[in-house]
Design a protein that fits this description.
- With 268 residues, this protein is mainly beta.
- Helix content is 10%, strand content 37%.
- The protein is globular.
- The relative contact order is 0.21.
Length: 268
């Protein structure tokens, strides 16, 4: 289903652009900080991320999402989604508020597509952006490492690089290995910045997903915009508004059999 793109997304999801493409206002480039360049494995990086924000990262996140997808003729198709995230591993996406009851629910390693308020048989689905952007701070490092290995990241390959004038730790590739599946972590703040995914059948095809415009959120961080590039061209964006963290959420919201039976956080 096309809706499941973000859901990568997400949370998810995906050069030159037409004049109608959403634009990001460039932030002033900060001075790169002196960082620890001694990471020998991806597990070391994941451990550092987890330990830096243990007990500080938000446990829930809700927001309204403007979803823009580049379509035929380089025209942007825009829709509004409503999302609720509960760490670790649970993300609800409502595709409308009309009562039709369409959406998708990610729960650990499964995804439920919801139609007319009813779940379709779940499929095995891992969203690595959820792991890298959020779950790493709320679950054991061993679980995060196992998931990422299963998704094809080689945690034995690590090198230092820079991106947007920021020092980065790259996991999944060695220096010069541009066509390997990899993720980039800000070396100073230890949050996720980008993921490069290579088409298994054609390694010349690359998808580059980025979390941008980070801002402080209590003792943690939040990226209110996601950009997805395909072979250098911007094809998908997510822009978050009405953002709330650490709000109490009814557990029934994440029960696929009760999709329409509970009061949604969107109307609070």
């Amino acid at each position: 289903m096309r809706h499941q793109l973000l859901a990568t997304i997400s949370l998810a999801t995906l050069a030159s652009c037409s004049h109608s493409a959403p634009q990001t206002q460039p932030a002033p480039a900060p001075t790169p900080a002196v960082t620890n360049a001694s990471y020998s494995t991806g597990a070391d990086v994941l451990t550092a991320m987890h330990e830096r924000y243990a007990g500080k990262w938000y446990s829930t996140l809700t927001f309204t999402q403007k979803t823009s997808r580049l379509g035929a003729g380089d025209k942007w198709n825009v829709s509004t989604w409503f999302e609720a995230l509960q760490l670790p591993g649970t993300l609800r996406i409502d595709f409308d508020t009309t009562g039709a009851g369409s959406g998708v629910l990610y729960m650990r390693d499964s995804a439920f597509t919801i139609q007319n308020g009813r779940p379709i048989t779940p499929q095995k689905a891992i969203n690595p952006l959820l792991v890298l952007g959020f779950d790493i701070y709320a679950q054991p490092v061993a679980r995060s490492a196992a998931i990422l290995k299963g998704e094809g990241f080689d945690l034995a390959r690590v090198h230092m690089a820079s991106f947007e004038n920021r020092p980065m730790i790259v996991v999944g590739a060695r220096d010069g290995e541009a066509r390997r599946k990899q993720f980039w972590i800000d070396a100073e703040h230890l949050y996720f910045v980008r993921m490069i995914d290579v088409n298994a059948r054609d390694t010349t095809k690359i998808q580059d997903t980025r979390f941008v415009n980070y801002r402080r959120e209590g003792g943690a961080w939040l990226s209110p915009r996601v950009e997805v590039y395909s072979d250098g061209k911007l094809i998908f964006t997510e822009e978050y508004s009405n953002i709330k963290t650490n709000v109490a959420l009814d557990p029934a919201l994440f029960d696929p059999t009760k999709w329409k039976a509970t009061k949604n956080w969107m109307v609070h």
